[in-house]
Amino acid sequence: MTIEIKVPVLPESVADASIATWHVKVGDKVERDQNLVDIETDKVVLEVVSPEEGVITEISDAEGDTVLGEQVIAKLEKGSGASAGKSQAAPTASQTTNSSSKGKSVEIKVPVLPESVADATIATWHVQPGEAVSRDQNLVDIETDKVVLEVVAPADGSLSEILAQEGDTVTAEQIIANFTEGAAGSAPSESTKAEAEPEASNDDNDALSPSVRRLLAEKGVDAANVKGSGKGGRITKEDVEKHLKSGGSAPASSAPKATQAPVVPAGERTEKRVPMTRLRKTIANRLLEAKNSTAMLTTFNEINMKPIMDLRKQYQESFEKRHGIRLGFMSFYVKAVTEALKRFPEVNASIDGDDIVYHNYFDISIAVSTPRGLVTPVLRDCDALGMAGIESGIKSLALKGRDGKLSMEEMQGGNFTITNGGVFGSLMSTPIINPPQSAILGMHKIQDRPMAVNGKVEILPMMYLAMSYDHRIIDGKESVGFLVTVKEMLEDPTRLLLDV
After folding, report:
1. Would the pTM of this model clear 0.85, i.e. be above it?
2. Chain mean position to CA 291
3. Burial bucket for residue 408 (CB in 10 Å: 0-12, 13-18, 19+)
4. Active site residue ranges
């Protein structure tokens, strides 16, 4: 009995979807409820499972194909007796097109880009032609304005050709490399490399990828002193790191002294030009947009952090033992902000054209510093989270941000932003609003200061608060009231429990 495998009914407002990953191929035996394929929409990833035990006899849509709701994408022969020859296997990944004695050839394509992202940049190739790789090993990082996408190997094998170099601009589903399944191919010989392409000069910045130029600039290394091992003698990030580990000494060169880079005298004024990353360009544009399109003001206050510090000290050990995570300050900040947002709905609102949109949920963006720049992933439904849930959520977002693993869903939305410049030593700042949000709260360095308490001077751990807000929607009364509420909640954490 043949059973049709169909795309599920798609969510409302979603017109089509893409085949993300086939977990089976033609001829595979499958169990009932086994995941067959992941289908990706603009909003969610849908899993299609096997309705019965049987054998996959046909796959009609390959990875990367666009499909519609309830479209037939495969066929299953019910029972265990069905057979299907490997020669009938449908291509997977953006795959395939021809076979040879060296193995099946597979096209490596740029993934479907997130909505509103027109193109992307090849950031880093992690493998070179001829290098053996394992299935699901990361081949290349592709950088968009918002996230870094990883493209992994569809099977064991090797790259046979790289078609888009680091720094190149690419579009969705563009072929960027060719891959050979099976045994690793042989890397091109040195003589072949020389014939194919003249050796790149390390002094020529155009021969360096953006990631290498950034690393050289950050470390203050002269490209002329680094020996390149890449194609045509190009310098790779690994070459720079190896050079730094070896003490930064310049490699011996067989070239005449006349062609070497001149020695720069001590005290010589130099400069380096490094291109902006796509994320940095986006940050710059959004910050200018916020300054130019909002009536932004900032109001300040200060907090005595001693009550929270005493509370952490008293319960830190038992909290960590029970929940498996340390109790930090951010969970208190998020809790206090959530309660203040409930009392001042204007701060939790946004402007859409001539309308004010009041949000009845509490999604808070947390500013996270990453190697690529500042990002603001969203911690959702904060009103439903306990202190441990908040700490765990923030830690997860911070780790993903550091490793470049944040998804588009985690970056989108958010009604209010918290940024903590205090971790870098900032005593006071005026944070910039994160559009289309209407306000942002800046936390700062906790510093001991003499304060007047009941007519006496006491040394207390104090912290400045700064709240920037859009005066088009939030008046001074609401902004000051919001900040005072946050202050009261943090100076007397019992209020968080009693909701007073």
Report:
1. no
2. 25
3. middle
4. 471, 475
